[in-house]
Write a structure and sequence with these properties.
With 189 residues, the chain is mainly alpha-helical. It has a domain at 14-145: Alpha Horseshoe (Serine Threonine Protein Phosphatase 5, Tetratricopeptide repeat), CATH 1.25.40.10. It has seven helices and three strands. Strand 2 and strand 3 form a beta hairpin. Helix 3 runs antiparallel to helix 4 (65-78).
Length: 189
């Protein structure tokens, strides 16, 4: 079930919410480690953390679970674990569809397919394209190239360290967006 917010409603910054909740603070710390592992090229370690966080987020119906699965899949493919990576990528993209995050699905699926092609996994990219073509017979959803008309944001989230991709974020207004992984508010630079 998608999360719906009142117009103009802003969540408190993740840092403040985590400070009052030890479980959230541990999750945020693990997310930071996963992002550091990604930067350092320790893709299997990062994938293990992303997958664990994604499963827990999915169990609690947290809307960030799809992004965590996609990041786990990305880490696994970078590590050469293409079969496991494809499972995580498919799981994340399917969750986006299940949660009716159609616009995010379109942008994320385009990026996933392009990333697979850059890594030389053309067959897997075609497999995903065929899966989405089959799905789009029932719904008008296809991978689309992300729009790049967003203001500059920090290159990484100050709370969790995740890479910021403005075209994939949920925007609050023209100057603020939510981090895809931890939900923190990102401010225009």
């Amino acid at each position: 079930m998608p999360v719906r917010r009142r117009p103009g409603h802003q969540r408190p910054p993740f840092r403040r919410r985590a400070a009052n909740n030890p479980r959230l603070e541990r999750s945020l710390a693990r997310l930071r480690y996963a992002n550091r592992f990604m930067e350092a090229g320790h893709f299997i370690d990062a994938a293990n953390i992303f997958n664990d966080l994604a499963r827990k987020a999915e169990d609690r119906s947290i809307p960030r679970a799809p992004q965590l699965y996609i990041q786990a899949g990305r880490a696994l493919t970078l590590a050469g674990e293409i079969d496991n990576g494809m499972l995580s990528l498919n799981k994340g993209l399917q969750l986006m569809l299940d949660h009716y995050q159609l616009q995010r699905f379109q942008v994320a699926s385009y990026r996933v397919i392009q990333d697979l092609r850059k890594q030389g996994f053309e067959n897997q990219a075609l497999q995903l394209e065929n899966t989405f073509a089959e799905y789009s017979k029932n719904r008008p959803t296809t991978p689309v190239k992300p729009q790049t008309q967003h203001p500059p944001l920090p290159p990484s989230c100050p709370d969790c360290g995740a890479v910021v991709r403005p075209e994939e974020l949920e925007w609050i207004n023209k100057n603020q967006a939510y981090c895809d992984y931890c939900g923190s508010v990102l401010e225009r630079r």
